[in-house]
Amino acid sequence: MKNIMKPVFFILSFSLFVIGCVNNNQEKIQNSSINERVDSLISLMSIEEKVGQMTQLNLDVLSVGEIYKLEEPHRLDEKKIRKAIVDYKIGSVLNCGGHTYTREHWHEIINKIQVTAQKETRLKIPILYGIDAIHGVNYTIGSTLFPQQLSQAATWNPEIVEEIASITAYETRASGIPWNFSPVLDLGRQPLWSRFFETYGEDVHLAKTMTKACIIGYQGKDVSNNKKVAACMKHFLGYSFSMSGKDRTPAWIPERQLREYFLPTFKEAIAAGAKTIMINSGELNGIPVHADSTILTNLLRKELKFTGVAVTDWEDIIKLHKLHKVAGTLKEAVKMSINAGIDMSMVPNDFEFSDLLIQLVKEKQVPMSRIDEAVKRILTLKLELGLFEKPINYFADYSDFGSKKHSEVSYRAATESITLLKNKNEILPLKSNQRFLICGPGANSLNILNGAWTHTWQGLDTNYNSKNKLTPLQAIYKEIGKENIEYTNSCTLDSINDLSSAIRKAKKVDKIIVFLGEIPCTEKPGDIEDLTLPRAQVEFVKQLSTCGKPIILVMTFNRPRLITEIEPLADACLLTYLPGDEGGRAISDMLFGKINPSGKLPFTYPRYSGSLLPYDHKHTERLDKKFGENAFDPLFEFGYGLSYTKFEYSELKLSLTTLKQNDTILISVKIKNKGLLEGKEVVQLYSTDCVASITPSVKKLVAFNKINLKPGETKEVKFKLSAVNFSFIGLNNKPVTEPGDFELRVDTLKAKFIYQ
Hints:
TIM Barrel, five-stranded parallel β-sheet, Rossmann fold, Immunoglobulin-like
């Protein structure tokens, strides 16, 4: 209790201090509307104060020790804080000093930074702190860690995505931080990409639906609410579709394709009120996006009407000079990016940006109007977040932080995401009275369950793992006891160290459960050469198959790693994606039938490393070398996922056979649970434009609904659509719905209508 009361007392004192030290100018400002308050503040600001607001520094710059080599335990450096906040008047800080902190330490950090801003700067403008809370508040000890974003997409349940975002916002604010660098809105259409697991999958409609739910969850109706945070859309635009599949390498995407696939999620987020946006670190069509006014100003501001803050990614203005080679000097890079439309620079490790931008303004190479525009957006955000009135949240307001209630949401999300891809002879669910060999690199690892952005950037350090969370092995022990379990760690992620022991144990059991895995990684460290599963894991499964025992593969991957060689050897395949801290419990409960799987693939699972077609490919991409139409042959299709029960679809009906521009069409279908178990089913509605001026996709998802059915129960699902739901980006790069025939499909049922 003493440890809690100390920061509470400090915060109360700090709040009184803030109220008492506000000068007359600010008192007048606080009684005005946000626009008037911002304009009044800007009129009082020097060029140094304005540029300071546009500068965002890494916490390392304010800490004891060298950048990336801080002294432990982490401490703030008084002189460094004064230099940043008092001398350079910076407006924003981000990140953690290398690893996760306690809530108490976060409050100490935020308090010290905000007190310095209030006590020792002329205008007392609060600091805006930002953090990567990617699947929960992954840099705060004791927080709730959820399934990663791709896992969330696999639930096909926007309600649970909104709930996850809302809890994440709550626990981020509980850490004293009001700005979350999430969600990733890049479309996952290049599975080689190291950040594939951070996306909502390959489909536009599914990703848009989850995007809207996430933004609402983060921000709510009033972002000044101390349980909400400002969302940050990442990474505008085209970041996820590099030609090489490597992180931060060139993307070449025609405008029509950009608008058809990669823009809609951002457009949806802006319509939902997203407050900030982070810019693509890479180059698009030969131009680094951080220097492209066509994208940052013409598209983002003028066309999409986005009025919030545009922040760079890590060192990306520096990279214009050092890596992209479009700027001869750093000063030229600063000029290019700010004039293109950047509002805030994630510098993040020195003060050169500030010095150079001040020079550029004084030399009239960057107009003051551009500076005022950027500063107005930043100050508006700070006011909208309520930071002027309350730079620090009251510590005791967050009794549900890391609570069992929150962890149950994480568990439920994991159970709804895990996808059953194969179940030969209904081998699953397992019976607890049999004997099992548990093996494979993912069997006893929380790190593999969580992936990157977990306690540390890459999520590899086991020293910071959450306490009292179960690995799959531990959860299975708890479920059925140790007496029926043989366990071996003979196979790591990339090596086999004792095959004979594994074979010996395999011969003594009824079934073998192999937990395949991928090393936690993201961004450049996550680059791979191909999607093939590490050879050691493939050979391990092949050797185990010689024992003649049924094999269940449980796959915990950042992206679809190829299992084509070993899938025929398996009797069941369960894809868990990255299910988070409650993943071990969810996997065990699904294996032993406490949970009925309901996850569906949010991407196309490839069969071969060179065949990476998405489900909504073009008709010509189906042509095979024998002149048939069988070239699209994934291992598992987008939207696929089995259940322990059976569903039957019938009576697909349309309210209209001819649809006109201002009409709506009602589509209904009946689904019956014909099995013996209660289960959830995702009803998926696809559309095919039979003939179009731009070659149409084979099919496109246009609606879906996840329902629950008891054994024997039948439900009717209805979808209400209009012409816009059947549109595409046309010849003039604008959305159009063209007259002609359309075919609708739900499961194996089909129906047609004509659009006039």
